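Support request, please re-run this one:
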Amino acid sequence: MNIREALVKGRQYLKEQQIDSFQLDAQVLLSQVTGIDRTGLFMRQEQPLTPQQQEKYQILLERRAQGEPVAYLIGRKEFMGRDFVVTPDVLIPRPDTELMVETAVKFFHKNSSCPPVAVDVGTGSGAIAVSLASLVQELQVYAIDLSEAALKVARQNAERLGMKERVHFQQGNLLEPLLKTMGEEVSIITANLPYVPSGDIPTLMRDVKEFEPHLALDGGPDGLDLYRLLIPQAYRLLQPGGLLLMEIGPGQGTGAKKILPAGQWQGTVLKDLAGRERLVLAEKKGEHF
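Re-run finished. Output below.
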């Protein structure tokens, strides 16, 4: 079997298994097996596969047909132009979350006198924390997660991408690890916490509900339980004028703004490129930098 025949076989098999992205997935999985990028696959279509490559490709196709995400199958996912290691211990970074990073970067570039300190709570793979450190010069990022397994992945990403000196990892619940050691000295807190309402979990795509960690998905009855706990903690750590950025799902904007105490915060809901509510930007009120 050569590369052309393998691609045909993979596309047809995944299509029969009702995988919507059958064409792209077949290419990505074959690229993983052969070590040839997707462009190279089409330039070397007559190159034969070894028996070992054929066997590995078939195994990956069967796992994908069962719904296992491609990112877990190949062990990486692109985010903000960088490849991040991912495992089933972490949520797969989404393009929608890039809005949070872009918003934070713009804030630091606009407010050059603010303290170069950020916190990423629920860091998972470390995609947000490492991206921020990469894009904002001299920024120190404190990245927190409840899961030690997730932190292991995040540390690996920080080291791979040259950010281990500027991203500091701590295990704990929400912002608790920092509350005893830090005061109002943080400029931005990013939070991509679980925000899927519990009742919506069964309706998620199979790739998500069966393979991604439920600890990183379930946000309680209305999806905002963890944000209710986070907001008063964030108020204690942020400088006046600092930002709390909270990722949400479509339809949660009004509810998320309502849980921000009016005397303490100014809340705005930002939409993603598809026009869906995606990010709550909460500015701590008071005199600031």
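The chain has two domains: 3-66, 77-284. The chain has a mean pLDDT of 93.
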